[in-house]
Design brief:
There is one protein chain. The chain is α/β, with parallel strands linked by helices. The chain folds into 2 domains: 51 residues, Roll (Spermidine Synthase, Chain: A, domain 2); 221 residues, Rossmann fold. 29% of the residues lie in helices and 29% in strands. It contains 10 helices and 13 strands. The strands form 3 sheets. The chain has a 7-stranded mixed sheet. β5 and β6 form a beta hairpin. α5 packs across α6. The longest helix is centred in the first third of the chain and has 16 residues. The protein is globular, with a radius of gyration of 18 Å. The mean pLDDT is 95.
Length: 284
């Protein structure tokens, strides 16, 4: 692949999207995946793994803000946060904006993703890897949650799709591991694909999360380069009240923090849990 060619995403056999490659910054196989980082005129620097777009400078803020701020603000007293995946550093960046968060443990299986993101996508992490509150662990996330003695208030599963290294992060066993290392009333959120194209991911996660948690649901956000429309984020907790705060409650928590966002607002927080009927119908 050279500048001027097109990157064609291979996630689906019956649908493709293309991004023009203006300049290739990095391409090689890491220990686990085929990693390409390139520049695109509209979306800036783009990170892909195994032929699938993972994040772009142009729209990453939607995904990272919604995966980080929704559970942390809903919890209301999160001090320790676990990120599974998230090697580009964008999730850690958003979580660390919360001054009340004392410790962030980030478990990423692929050191190459971290190293190349730090070098070629520094705007995503924006110094997060140097924050003393961040503990970066290069390990298998499923093994980590099954074995750690630590406990977390919020767990954010910033995974790839359920293929390759990310497949294990969509299993009932993994969700049970998350439950065992959560504090009482803790929250787990997961990347759950685009329901219009990946309906089974929503149904499967709903059933599997339900084996471990009393309250399971989904919320949604629109990320342009994740083809197929709105993305679903999975939600699981044993405290159903945390999913049902009104916008005024969230505003009272969020406004004093002074966090600058481009997508997330307290009103969006409340509204994102309202599911289109075709998505709600997948919760069976």
């Amino acid at each position: 692949m050279t500048g001027g060619e097109w990157f064609t995403e291979t996630l689906h056999p019956w649908l493709a999207q293309r991004l023009r490659v203006d300049r290739v910054l990095f391409r090689d196989k890491t220990e686990h995946q085929d990693l390409i980082i390139f520049e695109n005129e509209r979306f800036g620097r783009v990170l892909t793994l195994d032929g699938v777009v993972q994040t772009t400078e142009g729209d990453e803020f939607v995904y990272h803000e919604m995966m980080a701020h929704v559970p942390i603000m809903a919890h209301g007293a999160a001090r320790r946060v676990l990120i599974i995946g998230g090697g580009d550093g964008g999730m850690a960046r958003e979580v660390l904006k919360h001054i009340a968060v004392e410790r962030v443990t980030m478990v990423e299986i692929d050191r190459g993703v971290v190293d190349m993101s730090r070098e070629h996508l520094p705007s995503l992490s924006a110094g997060a890897f140097d924050d003393p509150r961040l503990d970066l662990v290069i390990a298998d996330g499923a093994k980590f949650v099954a074995e750690t003695a630590e406990r977390f208030d919020v767990i954010i599963v910033d995974s790839t799709d359920p293929i390759g290294p990310g497949e294990v992060l969509f299993t009932a066993a993994f969700y049970a591991g998350c439950k065992r290392c959560l504090t009482p009333g803790g929250i787990v959120v997961t990347q759950n694909g685009v329901p219009a194209l990946q309906a089974s991911e929503v149904t499967n996660s709903y059933r599997r999360l339900g084996r471990s948690f009393a309250d399971v649901g989904f919320y949604m956000a629109a990320i342009p380069t994740y083809q197929g429309g709105f993305m679903a984020m999975g939600w699981a907790s044993d405290d159903a009240a945390k999913r049902r705060h009104d916008a005024a409650t969230i505003e009272a928590r969020f406004a004093p923090l002074g966090i600058a966002t481009r997508y997330y607002t307290p009103a969006i927080h409340q509204a994102c849990f309202a599911l289109p009927k075709f998505v709600a119908d997948l919760l069976i």
